[in-house]
Amino acid sequence: NRVIQFSSADEHRYHESLVHIPFSLHPNPQRILILGGGENLASREALKNPSVLQIDVVDIDSTMFHLAKTNRFLKEINQDAASNPKVNLISQDAFTFLFANEDKYDVIISDLPDPTTEAIARLYSKQFFLMAKRNLTKKGVFVTQSGEIYFSNTVFSCIKNTLNEVFNDVKPYHTYIPSFGDWGFIVAKNSDFSPSDLHSLPTELTYLDNEQARQSFKLPKDITIAKTKINTLDHPVILDYFI
Hints:
Largest sheet: 7 strands, mixed
Shape: globular
Mean pLDDT: 96
Number of helices: 10
Distance between the termini: 17 Å
Oligomer: single chain
Number of strands: 7
Structural class: alpha/beta
């Protein structure tokens, strides 16, 4: 559809921020769930943490899994993560998977597309986030990509406000990605946490370090969380905000 999904020039900024910040808020992340991310760039980052024992990647598009394992360009970028024995590739809709799953995960990473349709808008609904919470361990951490934070501020805000209805503590953070702009993420836990709680990050990262990770929680003065309605299955308001 001619929409850029990632650029090999700067995708490391996105994926390091998406994965390692929630990881650093968990004392011992072992079982990981990645929703979306069929190209296996997020799983590449997750594999850099030695405590990780299992990574389940759930993507609706099985062709992406095939390409991630066979296309020489993707294999080079994802460092063969799709073929790693710790990585399980599950071709299924993320909503359906969370609904049926009974296992618990230490970290759930939602690496899903922006809410451009009603079908995708449900993946940012209160009901979806409630299912994610049910699939977490007691100390579990949930994170979702949340779009560009300046021009799409109401979408970013709507995700934050909807997560506030589900989790005890919810915090936005961001990083600049040249191919996309100032990109937002939102991390949530069932217990209080602070950017100062971040553990040490893997040393082999290209972009992120401990100071950069802590600074990512500081939003610019001209970015605020707007008052929005809550996104639900019955009322997918986030789609209106996105349009």
